Amino acid sequence: MSKALSGIRVIDVSRLLTGPYCSMILADLGADVVKVEVPERGDDSRTFGPFINGESGYYMTFNRNKRSITLDLRKNEGQQVFCDLIKDADVLLENFAVGTMDKWGLSYEKLKEINPRLIFASITGFGQVGPYAKRVAFDAVAQAMGGLMSLTGDPDRPPLRVGTSLGDINAGIFASNAILAALFQREKNGRGQRIDISMHDCIFAILENAIVRFTMEHNIPTRIGSGHPSVAPYNVFTASDGYVIIACANEATWQRLCQAMKRTELPNDKRFNCNQQRSINSKQLDEIINAWTATLTVAELELILQQNSVPVAPVLSIDSLVADPHLRERNMLVEVDHPLCGKITIPGNPIKMELSPDTIECSAPLLGQHTDVVLKEIGYAPAKIEYLRQNKIL
Amino acid sequence: MSKALSGIRVIDVSRLLTGPYCSMILADLGADVVKVEVPERGDDSRTFGPFINGESGYYMTFNRNKRSITLDLRKNEGQQVFCDLIKDADVLLENFAVGTMDKWGLSYEKLKEINPRLIFASITGFGQVGPYAKRVAFDAVAQAMGGLMSLTGDPDRPPLRVGTSLGDINAGIFASNAILAALFQREKNGRGQRIDISMHDCIFAILENAIVRFTMEHNIPTRIGSGHPSVAPYNVFTASDGYVIIACANEATWQRLCQAMKRTELPNDKRFNCNQQRSINSKQLDEIINAWTATLTVAELELILQQNSVPVAPVLSIDSLVADPHLRERNMLVEVDHPLCGKITIPGNPIKMELSPDTIECSAPLLGQHTDVVLKEIGYAPAKIEYLRQNKIL
Predict the structure, then answer these.
(1) Residue B294 CB neighbour total at 10 angstroms
(2) Nearest chain B CA: its distance from A87 CA (Å)
(3) Cα–Cα distance for residue pair A87/B264, rounded to 1 Å
(4) Where in chain B is the domain with CATH 3.30.1540.10?
(5) A44-62 burial code (b ≥16 CB/10 A, e <16)
(6) Residues in Cβ contact with A74 at an 8 Å cutoff, skipping those fewer than 6 apart
């Protein structure tokens, strides 16, 4: 069965996380992603743990379904090979510092002449234009300067970084949206185009209502732990063997929680007799609930609260997720066969489409595994490939 | 200038955040998003703050560039109107509980007969299939059961919810990827299709290398605050008037930081003389750096560290972001003119494309503002519209 992007070729010179995450989405959707890596060393993420037999699980997670070629873009002959690759490509993805592609003679203006249908997508910390464009960024910088960190954490502690590289990943997911939109637009007008995605813009774009809270009411939103600004109880509570979320969005649910806790006097306590009072006194309220939850296991709390129709959810740790029957059934845990590591379980593709299967066709490539086959596809003779290899262009 | 999705019509019956965020991306890309709201009450998010003149800034943020009609999908006649709307639509987006559309006689199988080119996209907490499919979810449940919460927070405190509704927003961004891919695929095969997006899947898909750390090395990743598992110093530090990120990825940068701190003895201290030692002793290291940063302002730290080529970034709060010259220049803060509230500044569109301008054409609609015009577009006579209104179908 073909996939949504079958027949689309992406030349991907991006490295580390944000670009590879974007091209992973495109590869999972069926695009032929040709990952261009530095000869000998490859993508820096090949050195990021965890490892099996010296191979990076980090790299494997984000580069499944792709092919790898080596090519030295810093050398003139490498740049010529690159231009040949671009001739028939649909998408170029890069996440170098602003100006790097220009410096190598691979500017959008030049590549557009070679291939006017090319979609040239860049992801950088702060975008191609604007006063911060040349500023170096990494994930934590985007989270900090994009405002997300100021909203995450407990009020009595410093701001916190989200426990995944959301600055990178979120920009990658927005970038694939842009590339897909450009592919669709090209069906209408026959033209490629330039795309400029900034990690900083993308974090700023996911701050929910924080911006209008300031622009409309001049409140400066800040950290409120795991609570809700206007609903109580709504928090993470500590069980004897883990943590659960409990939330009561209305009076009836609150009364059922009190029944479950065998604290039927609480709904009449004037500190807790309406949502507004409970929000004001949420610290005391949370202490009362925590005193109860601490006496029970996560499984016991789930059972009791579900019986009482009170919203409850366990805070799941990674080991339990890997065994989760729901994620397994939804093909969100996929076993791939890696040539050097054997069978490895990696996260699956969350884009579930009727006509574009969510299959992971192959594990991440070895460095340069597809150099010969890809160069042959664009018409290079074996002698030329051998010449390029001997001259360390590949 | 046309946009990437000019000419595409989305019938959007989704409410609250995850669906509206998805259709906001499509609307920003130029789709005609017709938001179908419950008569009289509208989208529940119209009751979420902040407010100006009784109008919700929450709703305004996610519903700009859309049109609003009212329609009661619970009534037979409303369902008939809905089927008429679907005839010419390209995309249907919904985020009701699993089975709700079927219950209303608006199943995919039925709508596909009316319009075989229809892309029918659902976003739910746990997806359409799998053992948890019927389980009720909201943002914090997706963050908790998807594993993100177990990774976010300080090690000595309970897990933390990210300070934005990432469970909703992230699924919305993945859903727009799926819809764009389906639109592209339809250009090739002429067929619509079913899309099934789960908030839980989508959170699980952004956990970076957490899954392979468990499946390859049997480590259970957990909360590490804002630090880095294998780089030190790398953290949030407290200035006299705010917070900064400081990171040293190599020895040279670490030595320059020590010079900036006038602590040139530290690189020779055996607790700190290599990255591995610094990681092991990161708590002591962070205390030393915090003792220095506490004596300086954020601006002073930025200046000194930039002069010494040490990566530094301020943790920006929402008020400073709204004044940020870079975000302003990149059109990430957009003033819209709302009929009841006047000029309001909302966040812009982070998808920057050469041939699809990132403009916000209009503010969010009033409830049912476009009911008459949209029903006229599908051929309804004024008398029929009046009849439907009197019978409280609209």
Answers:
(1) 11
(2) 20
(3) 53
(4) 234-315
(5) ebbebebbbeebbbbbbbb
(6) A104
**Residue A184 and residue A162: Cα distance in Å, rounded?**
33
Residue A228 known to be catalytic: yes
- What is chain A's pLDDT, residue by residue, as a tens digit (394 residues)? 799 999 999 999 999 999 999 999 999 999 999 999 999 999 999 999 999 999 999 999 999 999 999 999 999 999 999 999 999 999 999 999 999 999 999 999 999 999 999 999 999 999 999 999 999 899 999 999 999 999 999 999 999 999 999 999 999 999 999 999 999 999 999 999 999 999 999 999 999 999 999 999 999 999 999 998 788 999 999 999 999 999 998 999 999 999 999 999 999 999 999 999 999 999 999 999 999 999 999 999 999 999 999 999 999 999 999 999 999 999 999 999 999 999 999 999 999 999 999 999 999 999 999 999 999 999 999 999 999 999 999 9
Residue of A141, A148, A205 with shortest CB distance to B163: A148
pLDDT higher than threshold 90 for residue B102:
yes
Q: Residues for chain B: how many in total?
A: 394
Q: Is B83 exposed, middle or buried (0-12, 13-18, 19+ CB in 10 A)?
A: middle
**B160, A347: Cβ pair inside 8 Å?**
no
What is the overall mean pLDDT for chain B? 97
In chain A, DSSP assigns E strands to: 9-12, 32-37, 51-52, 55-56, 66-70, 91-94, 119-124, 194-198, 234-238, 243-247, 312-314, 333-338, 342-347, 352-353
Residue with tokens 């234009």: A129
With a CB-CB cutoff of 8 Å, which residues 166-195 of chain B face chain A? 166, 169-170, 173-174, 176-178, 180-185, 187-189, 191, 193-195
Q: Is pLDDT above 90 for B167? A: yes
B28/B360 Cα distance (integer angstroms): 7
Say if the Cβ atoms of B58 and A209 lie within 8 Å: yes
Amino acid at B237: F
Please identify among residues 322-341 of chain A the ones whose CB lies closer than 8 Å to any CB of chain B: 322, 325-327, 329-330, 332-333, 341
Number of other CB atoms surrounding residue B117 within 10 Å: 14
CATH 3.40.50.10540-classified regions of chain A: 9-205+325-390
Q: Who contacts B255 (Cβ-Cβ below 8 Å, separation ≥6)?
A: B267
Count CA within 13 A, CB hemisphere, residue B286.
Answer: 20
Calculate the alpha carbon distances from B307 to A13, A347, B187, B266 in Å. 31, 42, 53, 20
ipTM topping 0.90: yes
pLDDT in tens, B257-274: 999 999 999 999 999 999
> Which chain A residues touch B151 with a CB distance below 8 Å?
163-164, 318
Flag if B352 and A201 touch (Cβ within 8 Å): yes
Which residue, chain included where needed, has tokens 């599908």?
Answer: B378
Contact (CB<8Å) A213/B181: no
Amino acid at B208: E
Interface of A with B in 202-261 (CB under 8 A): 202, 204-217, 219-226, 230, 234, 236, 238, 243-245, 247
> What pLDDT is recorded for position A249?
85
Per-window interface: A 252-311 vs B, CB < 8 A? 311
State the average pLDDT over residues B73-77. Answer: 98
Give me the CATH topology for the region A9-205+325-390: Rossmann fold (3.40.50)
* CATH tag for A234-315 (out of 1.10.10.10, 3.65.10.10, 3.10.180.10, 3.30.1540.10): 3.30.1540.10
Q: What is the helix (H) or strand (E) element at residue B280, kind and residue range?
A: helix B275-280
pLDDT tier, B335 (very low <50, low <70, confident <90, very high otherwise): very high
